[in-house]
Specification:
- Helix 2 runs antiparallel to helix 5, helix 3 packs antiparallel against helix 4 and helix 4 runs antiparallel to helix 5.
- The two termini are about 25 Å apart.
- The chain is elongated and about 55 Å long.
- About 75% of the residues lie in helices and about 0% in strands.
- The protein has one domain: Substrate Binding Domain Of Dnak, Chain:A, Domain 2, CATH 1.20.1270.
- By secondary structure, it is mainly α.
Length: about 130
């Protein structure tokens, strides 16, 4: 199943599914799961990874909330959606920076996904009107 198809099927979309926003929502969902997984892996590391755990869990929560707001198409709440996308961009950037400090594969993967999610949310911002 594709989030793009689901959004396109919404009665209020009327032929304008905003593919860029749907992609941002999709990647925010993926980012939430990867950050949660990274946080869990950080807990198993022998080093003190508490800041990375915190960054990943915060990022997961923000990404999940952003994805949920982004796929809602009934009515309009443009200011909230823009604020969520902006917050997601910044939170992903901060998480990517934290994860990049650690030489672990799970942190590298999380940082990469965070950068991709930030780029997608940044690209979606001008499409929200």
């Amino acid at each position: 199943m594709s989030i793009h198809k689901m959004v396109a099927a919404h009665p209020d979309v009327a032929g304008d599914p905003n593919e860029v926003l749907a992609t941002a929502a999709r990647h925010a969902m993926f980012c939430a799961e990867l950050c949660t997984s990274c946080a869990d892996a950080c807990v198993a590391e022998p080093d003190d990874m508490r800041q990375c755990v915190r960054s990943c869990l915060d990022c997961a929560d923000v990404c999940e909330a952003t994805a949920r707001v982004a796929v809602r198409r009934t009515g309009r709440n443009i200011e909230v959606l823009q604020a969520m996308l902006e917050t997601c961009v910044r939170t992903c950037e901060l998480c990517a920076e934290e994860c990049a400090r650690h030489d672990m594969e799970h942190c590298r993967l999380s940082a990469k996904m965070c950068r991709e999610c930030a780029a997608d949310c940044r690209a979606a911002l001008p499409t929200v009107h």
